[in-house]
Amino acid sequence: MADHTISFAIAETGATATAAVPTGSLLVEALQKAGVEVTQPCGGQGRCGRCIVQVTDGSVRRRSSLRLSQEDIAQGYALACQSVVEGDLQVVIPLQEKIARRLTTDRIAAEVRVPEGYEFAWSQTIRRYSLSLSPPSMDDQTDDWSRLQTALRTQANIGRVNCSIALLRRIGSVLRESDWNVTAILDAAASEAGGPARLIDLRPGLGSEQDPLWSAAVDIGTTTVTVWLVDLISGQVKAQVAEYNGQIARGEDVVSRIIYASKNGGADEMQGLVVNTINALIELACRRVKARPEQVVKAAVVGNSTMTHLLLKIPAASIRLSPFITAVNHPPLMTAGEIGLNLCPDATVDCLPGVASYVGADITAGVLSSGVSTTEEVTLFLDVGTNGEMVLGNRDWMVTCACSAGPAFEGAGVVDGMRATEGAIEEVWVNNESYEPTYRVIGGGKPRGICGSGLISLLAEMFLTGVLDKAGNVNVDLKTRRVREGDHGGEYVVAWGAETEHGRDIVITHVDIDNLLRAKAAIYAGFTILANQVGVPLESVAKMLIGGSFGKYINVEKAVQIGLLPDMPWERFEFLGNTAIRGAYYALLSQQSRERVADIARRMTYIELSADNTFYEAFMSAMFLPHTDMSRFPAVEAALRKT
Amino acid sequence: MADHTISFAIAETGATATAAVPTGSLLVEALQKAGVEVTQPCGGQGRCGRCIVQVTDGSVRRRSSLRLSQEDIAQGYALACQSVVEGDLQVVIPLQEKIARRLTTDRIAAEVRVPEGYEFAWSQTIRRYSLSLSPPSMDDQTDDWSRLQTALRTQANIGRVNCSIALLRRIGSVLRESDWNVTAILDAAASEAGGPARLIDLRPGLGSEQDPLWSAAVDIGTTTVTVWLVDLISGQVKAQVAEYNGQIARGEDVVSRIIYASKNGGADEMQGLVVNTINALIELACRRVKARPEQVVKAAVVGNSTMTHLLLKIPAASIRLSPFITAVNHPPLMTAGEIGLNLCPDATVDCLPGVASYVGADITAGVLSSGVSTTEEVTLFLDVGTNGEMVLGNRDWMVTCACSAGPAFEGAGVVDGMRATEGAIEEVWVNNESYEPTYRVIGGGKPRGICGSGLISLLAEMFLTGVLDKAGNVNVDLKTRRVREGDHGGEYVVAWGAETEHGRDIVITHVDIDNLLRAKAAIYAGFTILANQVGVPLESVAKMLIGGSFGKYINVEKAVQIGLLPDMPWERFEFLGNTAIRGAYYALLSQQSRERVADIARRMTYIELSADNTFYEAFMSAMFLPHTDMSRFPAVEAALRKT
What we know:
Two copies of one chain form a homodimer.
Chain A: E1 3-10, E2 16-22, H1 27-33, E3 52-57, E4 60-62, H2 70-74, E5 77-79, E6 83-85, E7 89-93, H3 96-103, H4 120-123, E8 126-132, H5 144-156, E9 161-162, H6 165-177, E10 181-187, E11 197-204, E12 214-220, E13 224-231, E14 237-244, H7 254-262, H8 266-288, E15 296-303, H9 305-312, H10 317-320, E16 334-335, H11 336-339, E17 348-351, H12 361-370, E18 379-384, E19 388-393, E20 398-403, E21 424-430, E22 437-441, E23 449-450, H13 452-464, E24 483-486, E25 489-495, E26 506-509, H14 510-534, E27 543-547, H15 549-553, H16 556-561, E28 573-577, H17 579-589, H18 591-603, E29 605-606, H19 615-621, H20 634-642
Parallel strand pairs in A: 1-7, 9-11, 12-15, 15-17, 18-27, 20-29, 21-23, 27-28
Antiparallel strand pairs in A: 1-2, 3-5, 3-7, 4-6, 8-10, 10-11, 12-13, 13-14, 16-17, 18-19, 19-20, 21-22, 24-25, 25-26
Helix pairs in contact in A: 7-8, 12-17, 12-18, 14-19, 17-18
């Protein structure tokens, strides 16, 4: 076979490179041959979109155009991992920043208010002091470390201070380079408990009191890692960035990642992948505010228990196996250097405490930021991601549990399911006479599939119009081409091939519906068990708070109609977005909030659903639309009567 | 040139190897070619003797036979680095252990008494507890780390405990492997100051209270590293081992090592060399008591300030340059893992505090073990190695200084000087009429040179018999062939070539005498300055304690006669051997002793001789035999009158 010449132009640096490859090669292979690095967090499966390039001359055969819009394709954009070379090509590698912006959720950086009453000097355990030392002489041969300790004692009233060997190695040169005028950063957390303060960094020069002092809140989601860069002096969030968790390429859910990490070398790899993701995000956030990662002196980290174990390379196998035990719910304070984070090496890294194997620090942080633990009213808090974790309680008591809802609402396990990105059907309406659907597509182009909110509204509409019965069976006797017998039972056609981007029908099958019913039943059964446990009827819950990006887009009415959320007046529902990172941010800022998270973790009573003998019954009762017990869903009953 | 076949048999493993090398190759090159590793701490200069091999067939040309006795040579022993190949050879690599025993000072393992009143439970900060945990279940899903903390609280009364990430990673498997019966080792040092205790190790099984619990006292000398392996339960020293400091190959004295460490990569290399030396010694000591290095849970380390800095890879350059400042005199507690020691990774490593650039932890430890800091009587303590450090004081006050005496008394800087090993003239007598010498040789064979004690006795005898005048000049007008004009002034022949092992005359030259005078004058001037500083006449000192291996062999009378030691009744002198390792041992065993070392370091007043304007005068006054002021040496005056 003849070789083709592929010329690359790298927008970031202005550099060019060439490679010769035979017909049939993937573009990503040509890139590798040309020595051009491209990131592939999804492992080259066309899912993450990070290897996007623009073909400016010549054309490629596309194996998959997931993640690309018609417009993208028209402009020559292609995923290198999915593009087959069939001739000479001119290819541009776009600016990395531009790619990141296309993909990540930081397009809309939410305004975050600094908590009321925040003051660096009072709320923080981090201290910063400008110190002028008298230089040594033949008459004063005090060693550098004692000299610094004396300055801290006399100029900053720090009685006892500790220091790592690595930092000790640098002290002498910093003192001498800066002519004995330095800025010391310390963590005083331990000194309040009678221990010594800890020196985090020593920087040359005296600086100004207004100079920012950088820290980071980190939320390690199974799917997405989010970082907020925070100035501890003002308390303000100065940058928000997010990116897929690099571990995705080694398993989509926590169980498959635990299995991978248990293999030889797997734990090292898993830790490396998430550490790289965090480091890249910190780097990106720092670039935005013109800071350097080594200036970041503190981090507060949340994540589900598996994510925390994998970050710390602590064996996670026992999380997966009965009786489902974590090695540690509340890791000790550590330093960035200990786990390989590219911050200041002695930066304090505070992994917030979780409750159990499936209720992690993301939930305790969510409880903090959502206010469940301080309100008088009985509140139900739900965080839906790959799993659904929920908390019922108020300032006096809290019970919590986790349901393995599975990723159906993230579009997985559903034939035409997809994430909530361009081309996803996000809302559906079904005509109750013609059974013809109308839908809205993210980005406005032709549909490629259905995302979570679309699936919820589709199910609800099908049920209310009689396309589905209570048990979720498609009524194939309806007089419409939209319902038909598929390979796996009855199915409903949402979009005909002629209207879709890929030319195939977009359908929802019996198996899809069953998966969705299982997911919603697991979540609703969780609510039921929590309410039964404390003897509080679900309908008496004063507030229902929903965290996670999932909640941001769903239509409450539809979610209630399928029995995913309890039937309550709509004003009781509140969508809070990422409550986990917000909780991490609060704990990062204030020692009082930090202690409140620990208190929350201690106070929450965890209910292991697999050990609860009423769960199965509650689950089976919720496997109907909206539920076997219609008295729980009066508003849905009313709506059914209307249609 | 024809190649010769060299066959090696390795006694340690029973393995064999062969190499073909041309005439003129060194045996060490043949070893390298054959892939046989030999250690060469002296860098291949024939000084350390570690590359000794036995030629069983064929013969080699010896460049140098330093370190070998006639008997050794007769048996075919040769130093690989000094042996030139001239034909086929059969060579045996002896057991490493055998070589070590030939060389190191552990041939005579001194009986060390456990300090009175030592009791593990009361004297130690290390704790050991056998714990039985209740296993987790669906009804008790407490995480492993909390479960262990609960057991420590309820079964061992340990309120707060901290743990490294590395150890956290192992806890789950240790608990499960041992069926939830474990032994926890903790360091409670910080908990007495209000901080948490620190978990050092978690071992499967419950064990017995009598099982040994291993720890190590380490003395890093510039020349020799000494390790005592100590059972913390009984307090007994169970093994004593010593070996040349691997750094010797990169410089004999502290100044040249600081310079080497300041070069690119030098600090890493220096740390690696001494860490390897310590690890090898720990390994050897553990093998003797059938323990494993990872069972060692605590170490107390002493050494001069440069040795401590190089061990911790802390830049030492400022030690060498005026105003001679250490980066740190009292390093924080650290763990073995932090500095690469192959003990239990979380073993507590306690580097004892020093006082100044040239008065290190070896001296504070020496003051502890010699009792200077607790006695009522005014005591003078001297530790002579490559430098001479001294302390004058009692329980109420102490002053200290260091003299750069140089290594003359270790045989360096003296034409026929050598260390106190086989073939060294260790004592000399000169006939006061014929000026003919008589001498005693270590090992009883032919002499190869003169060691420190030999040089002291030689100087004293030459002075008393009039071969030398007060200023140290050789009286070349004497009627004896023994005195003659050499290349560098007058010299005295101690042994004729016919009597010596190498066939050359053994002489002491004018330059040698000058070097020795400088060394002794520096030390005596140090005594003078200390005494002047506190207004105590030297002759009123009640006790003179001498530490270091140097002291073990010298003749006090002769040392006084040359003015190295002050003229006092002999019963006031006491030789204590290695006071540094003994002090480390005491501090290792008892927290009270450990605190006393810190107190000693704080209390000692350091006098920098180079900043003292009376030092030069005191030094010049001491550049005579025994001193310009003969009234200071009444006993010597009396002896002179007798001869």
